């Protein structure tokens, strides 16, 4: 059934006069839909050849001692770049699904405390011996009604970013708490911070505050766009507070209706 999309703008003049303008934005909607489908198709099509390339690279790496020494470095670089491309494709597919709402949100009682603890320990493992300190202050009692996989993606993007954009030895404070408004995950780092002019645009795809850094940090540039869509799917929002040189705080807000008590254990 064809849909017509209208954008309606109502302006008030004085006490009783109103100007109502309705604009047909159906074409714009269709174009946006085509863009998403295109991105999703291209990503899926690229995945198969990349899997083959990565498979051969892995086999070659397993036999690195048979590879002539002058090619070993090239082999390492190729493996690294293939991994980056895989991460990019995975994120593109996830984002396309989140945007179209095709990623059906699988609402369940989710143990957010456990999810956050797991993510922090993964982040700690990835940061290796960089000496990052991750402090956790996690309320146990409340669980969230939401999609565990989507929430895991959102939380890990924010927590891994905190590590990525904080120099070695820095501190990351992770706090999960509830109050009258709802439930909140705050991730506060002592890192490089963000110039306020960039903050409103950080959740756009591929937007980076400092493009020269992204080669080093190796992200996909899609992390915060994914976070934004996951939070939207959970009726939540993202708050970003930061100053250059003074670290950043990313807060995921969830409304009260999403909070549930931990389920009672049944035998
Ligand atoms: P990326 O893969 O580049 O990290 P994201 O979408 O996750 O992409 O983040 C977008 C941009 O936001 C980053 O490139 C970086 O400039 C900025 N950013 C995100 N998290 C932080 C943080 N904790 N501290 C400083 N800058 C950050």
Average pLDDT reading: 91
The residue ranges in which pLDDT falls below 50 over 5 or more consecutive positions are none
Query: How do the helices and strands follow one another from N- to C-terminus?
Result: EEHHEHEEHEEHHEEE
Shape, principal axes of CA atoms: globular
Structure classification? alpha+beta
Largest sheet: 5 strands, mixed
Which band does the percent of strand residues land in? 15-25%
Number of strands: 10
Measured distance between first and last alpha carbons:
48 Å
* Secondary structure: helix percent: 40-55%
Order of adjacent strands in the largest pleated sheet: 4-6-7-9-8
Give me the number of helical elements.
Answer: 6
Layout of helices and strands:
Blueprint: E1 6-13, E2 17-24, H1 26-62, H2 69-100, E3 108-110, H3 112-127, E4 133-138, E5 142-146, H4 148-164, E6 171-178, E7 182-189, H5 214-217, H6 223-233, E8 237-242, E9 248-255, E10 259-261
Parallel strand pairs: 4-6
Antiparallel strand pairs: 1-2, 3-5, 5-10, 6-7, 7-9, 8-9
Helix pairs in contact: 1-2, 2-6, 3-4, 4-6
The structure holds adenosine-5'-diphosphate.
